[in-house]
Amino acid sequence: AAFQENVGRQGTFPHGIDILTAADYFAVGNRVNCYLTISVYIAGFPEYTQPMIDHLVNMKINHWDSVIRELSTKALHNLTPRAPEYMAHVVLPRLLPLSVGTDLHTRHGAILACAEITHALCKLAEENNRSLTYYFNEKSLEGLKQIHQELCSRQLYRGLGGELMRPAVCTLIEKLSLSKMPFRGDPIIGGWQWLINDSLRSLPLVSSAARQHIKESAVSALAALCNEYYINENGEADPALQDELVTQYVSELQNTEEMIRCGFSRALGALPRCLLKGRLQQVLEGLKKVTLISPADVSFAESRRDALIAIAKVCQTVGVKGEGSQEEYVCKDNVTQIYATLLTGVTDYTTDSRGDVGGWVREAAMTSLMEVTLLLVQNEAKLINANICRQIMCWLAQQSAEKIDKFRAHAGSVFLALLHFDRPPVPHIPHREELERIFPRSEKETLNWNAASEAFPRITQLLGLPTYQYYVLLGLSVSVGGLTETTLRYSAQSLFDYMKKIQDDSSAMESFCETLLKVFEDNLRNDRVSVPLLTMLDQMLANGCFDIFTMQENHPFSVKLFTLCKEEIKRSKDIRKLRSSIGVFCGLIQFQGDTREKVLFQLFLLLCHPFPVIRKTTASQVYEMLITYSDVAEPAVVEEVMTILSDTNW
């Protein structure tokens, strides 16, 4: 506002109108845009270049807000091409002492600024075919090396200051490696490697967000360091160094601390091809062990997630060669093992005090399955067999029908990405033509999987495709019988709409009921599925979904369903499960034959249940059942039973 006022009244500010056009009130309101884009435009006018750089160095890299410090250093990177000599000969020598100074914020900002300016200067030197000595003298190179040594000797990586120093120096290592600094064979490389390894381990007194930031910085630094300093002119790594690094990283995967497993899983995923060559099976086996659930590490969902992400990264790094060695490539000998590990991740439903932590694992598994599949399709599609492709698409279909919006949306987007990929198409996708009709290519980007109202009407259409029916029904059971109102409403409505469509098709109904019973049987006493499944069955019976079978004497569906329900609640003390089963038993009364007597007897047992709430619920629902199905017994008997039910204090 002050700048605008001066331009309007005095007219003496250089390039005032041009600057105000770019840096208007709304444009500067966005902090990132202001620092990274507008600053570069304004610094393009010579009168403003040096003052803007000086302001960032003097006033902003030591700001109390770490976000401002980080933005300032990125702005200095962008401004370096405007004044490279000034940056190299004035700004960098001024920053080097600050980067080992006593003030924490100034030290943090100065280290990041050194990293960004050095990287920008090296890019300029490369673009203009100049040697690094054009911008860097011996003193500045030595100063950059001294930063880590000084911080290490003063133990500034420890304590709360380590939250800032570790990611800052890891960023410095990454930028110096990308800048191809002439440090090959220098002892400083060993010091940097120590810091990276130490940062990959769990750090005490550090928040989880800070720990994640430190690990990400360390992994980025490791990738750049290995690519620049561990590979010779022939593109090969030193065998002794490779053996030491890979063996150490794989052994850390079985550490008893989850965060250490996470760090070294990510690190293995970042290693360059030359360090994985000849060691691929060792790395894949190590990562596979991290993905397995054992009683000791059942809650280690984050390490399982990171291991699955790392497997896909490793596969992308080593590449594909069908007839190649399993120690060097993704090939016919190891592709089945890779897929088996990734598919195991899709079945992780671990829960703890944080909620559905298995969802993180499932999400990572789905992403990795997509990445590995697309990698194979574009290189050697024949390595994808029909069975693997069927499993992938079926599991994705199940996840696309489940109750948590975020994971459903991710599964749906991966499902459509594989279905519509055409460079070349993914082979062996079951029912491809029908799927492309249900999910047209034109709606790939617009279909909102997060919205239950859009997702469920589409996904329930897969119930008509035999390959997908079991898996979609398994996913729907959890949604229709769930507790979230919108998910419940739209999933149930979509299911009932599908059932109406097949009511007159006896073979389709028989097939559906057979699959439904199979889902129940396979998940008997698995409360994550069986409890909502009972709720879904209650709703389906109440909505007349099985009317076609009710008039048949002793229809197998009613007999089997009664047996499974009875088995499910045997010796159970789960109130929600018991209440859901009452609704199913009451719904089964509409079927003719011996089942009716068995159902009545089961309901009488529930009227005598030790839990008052179960007795009361049973009485209430049996009363409603007798009003609906009055042909259960003689009218006089029904009337007497209803009187007892209503008059008794259950």
Automatic annotation (TrEMBL):
Protein family membership: Belongs to the TBCD family.
Ranges in coiled-coil conformation: none
One cellular-component annotation, GO: lateral plasma membrane
Protein name per its UniProtKB record: Tubulin-specific chaperone D
Pfam families in UniProt: TFCD_C (PF12612)
Family annotation (SUPFAM superfamilies): ARM repeat
Tubulin-folding cofactor D C-terminal domain: residues covered: 391-577
GO molecular function: beta-tubulin binding; GTPase activator activity
InterPro entries: ARM-like, ARM-type_fold, TBCD, TBCD_C
Superkingdom as given in the UniProt entry: Eukaryota
GO biological process, one term: post-chaperonin tubulin folding pathway
